[in-house]
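Re: S-adenosyl-L-homocysteine structure - here you go.
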Amino acid sequence: MTSIYSLTPIKAAEYLLSSGFKASQADNIFKDIYAFGACSFDEMKYTARELVSALSKDFYFEKFICEEICDSESTAKYLFKLSDGNYIETVLMRQEFGNALCISTQSGCNMGCKFCCSGKLKKLRDLTISEMIMQVLYIERTEKIKISNITVMGIGEPFDNYENLCGFLDIATYGHGLGMGAKHITVSTCGLIPKIYEFADRDNNCNLAISLHAPDNETRNTLMPVNQKYPIEELIKAAKYFSGKRNRKVLLEYIMLEGINDSKEQAEKLAELIGDSRLFVNLIPYNPSREDDFRRSNEESIRAFYDVLKKKNVGVTRRREFGGELNAACGQLRSDRIKKEEV
Ligand code: SAH
């Protein structure tokens, strides 16, 4: 049995044709699930009865369990318990322009970035398409809000779960699915280069963000093991390819870590690497966790770093902080819960 929320437009058409229905009936299934919000086969009202009966033999309506919500004015953080007992986190950010949701793609992560909580607890498994969809649906329905932006920047490396990520994006951007504009979705990767090329060549208009965090291989190798396999020059080349192919800007995320990657010389190096391209830098304040020794850069260094990039005509922004007070840095809530269970 498959969760009905894993049904992509393409898979729905294939299913219908192979079961003796018309591919065009897919729209009714999607309308029932996403526009009408049916949570059981009995509640489907647009879909023909004989099709509902066929669907009920092959699919089920998945339920999502929320174990904990940490809420503050601007941010709410949800800890979900999956059907096999694994945990994931989703963060809702209430912003002036709308509601942005940061979703997870894996339970745990194998990339091992030194500053990140998610990686401390290795990947347990990939999330299914439906588990990504449910993070959005659950929050839209329980909070009675519409999500206007999605960042795929929660727990996990999205390009390490590429097929399911693409299935999720297909439903998210499908008019009868979540109906989101692709330009309102951003996928963030630590730099799995072959997938960046694949994603650029795929017919999709989602945004790409790359967790760069250092301007040279020496520094990046110490922070992000993935750099040993996919070095920085190749990564920047891939980012530029994406930018040219999709005619989009590409965001380079850069966590400011005191004494590690925040000197003026490093800012100069970063500007050189970027050159005259459509890559732009987002400076992120480090969100300290109890488990490592990194410290966030002070205001003066951030400002100086920012000024160097500006002077060199590199596009640069500073990220407004959300969720620090909530333990909302990547994977912190999940990591706390797993420890509690171990005790
Ligand atoms: N694996 C993907 C997406 C998940 S991480 C990626 O690496 O891009 C999402 C972003 O949060 C990344 O830029 C990551 O480096 C950053 N991040 C992780 N831990 C953080 C922390 N403690 N403070 C600030 N940003 C953090």
